[in-house]
Amino acid sequence: MNRKxxxxxxxxxxxxSIIACGQKEEPKVEYNTKTFKKSFExxxxxLVEFNFEIIxxxxxxxxxAKDSINKYLSLFYNASVTGEYEVNSVETLFDSTLADFKxxxxxxxxxxxxxxxxxxxxxxxxxxxxxxFTYSTTGYQFTGGAHGMTYLINYNFDAxxxxxxxxxxxxxxxxxxxxxRHAEKYFRSKNNLMPNEDLNAAGFWFENNKYEINxxxxxxxxxxxxxxxxxxxxxYAYGQxxxxxxxxxxxxxxxxxxxxxxxxxx
Length: 266
Hints:
- Helix content is 29%, strand content 29%.
- By secondary structure, it is α+β, with helices and mostly antiparallel strands.
- The strands form two sheets. Strands 1-2-3-4-5 form a five-stranded mixed beta sheet. A three-stranded antiparallel beta sheet has the order 6-7-8, with helices on one face.
């Protein structure tokens, strides 16, 4: 190997190292995951069962962001099941729910019907880059009756400030009708509805028979999605509805200085 080649190789390695050092790695939210599973079985007629998948924020680009995101995570995990009480951990939530269960169980036994409480809660992190941290919470709750309820709520955070992001921050003024129109197109296609087919006649509950977007949206990698929970726009049996709008469809109304500016960096 001649000296000129060695010199060239050394300079190349040095330049690559300098460039790599000069590039700052994008800060991300760091979190840990754990599970909480606990149950209590009184007898064949009564059962309390918790099944939680929990994430906790260990580190964020700023302390404010860490505190803010953890606060909302805590509100989800510790939300009351059977009472109006406030708790600060899933352990005390289980204990409080169990106390209510034991108080109501004698009446259930006397009436001869089963009394079960089941609670499942989990979180799916969808985006953790571009200074964004977005996730979907999924909760299932059964406290008696004909069926349980499943609900999904989306959260979109600025990973630096810790503030929740609104639709108004994503788009230029006057965006609503354009987003609504694109969302309706995908909603109708996904549910096999013709462009002019009557929504209410098809079993949906939109006010004034007009499709509308809601605030339960999620910033994803390639699309913006809207989620409608059970009983929100249709009967329980219809389940949940998700509508995804590719960013390319609405690129001309995206605020280039807002949270979706990464769309223009591709």
